[in-house]
Amino acid sequence: MRRAPRSAPATLPLVTADSARRDALGLLCIGFEGTELDSTTALLLRDCAAGVVLFARNFVNREQVRGLISEVRRAAGSRPLIVAVDHEGGRVQRFRGAGFTDLPAARALGAGGDASAVRRVAETAARELRAVGVNLDFAPVLDVDSNPANPVIGERSCSRDPGVVARLGAEFVRALQEAGVAACGKHFPGHGDTHLDSHLDLPRLPHDRARLESIELPPFRAAIDAGVASIMTAHVVFDAIDPGVPATLSAAAIDGLLRRELGFDGMVVSDDLDMKAIADRFEVGAAAVRSVAAGCDLLLCCRSAENRDRAIAALAEAIESGALPRSRVARSLERIRAVADRFGAL
After folding, report:
1. Predicted confidence (pLDDT) per residue in 53-79, tens digit
2. What's residue 1's pLDDT?
3. CATH topology for 17-342?
4. Per-residue confidence (pLDDT) for residue 14, from 0 to 100
5. How much is the pTM?
6. From CA 118, how far away is CA 170, in angstroms rounded?
7. What gap in Å lies between CA 32 and CA 84, rounded to an integer?
8. Residue 13 pLDDT grade (very low, low, confident, very high; cuts 50, 70, 90)
9. pLDDT band at 196, cuts 50/70/90?
10. pLDDT the model gives residue 94
């Protein structure tokens, strides 16, 4: 019997300049100035930016920020969107005032050691954030407060004991996500022992791998076991992992340690590429490409419109040329969509 001819294998659509730019935007969560949606940000959302990150500069009160987020969602059309904020409690809480509870700092929660208190705080945060349309909270901090002179973590960590950070961090993750808001554990592999602030400089930790396994990594392992939706990278150099390379740009840290060794397959978020640890040492467009190549999925560009545009252009060029493999970009877009889908029904 004569066999029917085989059909030609399906071919992937060609990467055009337009599709490369859409995919580049799909990797970015962008910040903007002011309490109303500006036309440039609206266009970027229309053209498939992954989402926005909001700050105190975008906030007046609950009604205003709810309206702003509604504008953001209308600009993006019907597709799922990431709307993120830093809402840890203590000094890092972007929305304050009527309609938002002043949440305690992690250190205060850790001092009590009460998982039920942590759960109540996370549930309160989720309820109030969902009420205005936020679906991703950049919390909890999983850094261990092992350096009293640390200028940026301090009270944002719940304890000097990695076991306490692991237990309470995992409880925060579960409670926040059960209440409908995605959690983001930070700052991987650990920012707690630095003596520099990565907003201003590039910290370096010389600890050996045994030390990281006993202090820095247990809270991240616990959060992964708890099903954390996303993890944020640290702009910190870890000599035992990748000498001279910040974790945000390090394949050894992200693809190697976080993905392969710790088994995390959720969304990896870069810390803000505008921070001086990155922006003062690397061209921002090249850093964006390098971060995605290393394993980051969602890149934060929170302040500088110039840096944002450089990141978009560099990512689009790398996608169109193949310097960023299509399979790598597609997997990141899938992870971002999965979080937006899961936590998008508001």
Report:
1. 999 999 999 999 999 999 999 999 989
2. 33
3. TIM Barrel (3.20.20)
4. 66
5. 0.94
6. 10
7. 12
8. low
9. confident
10. 97
Q: Which residues are catalytic?
A: 199, 271
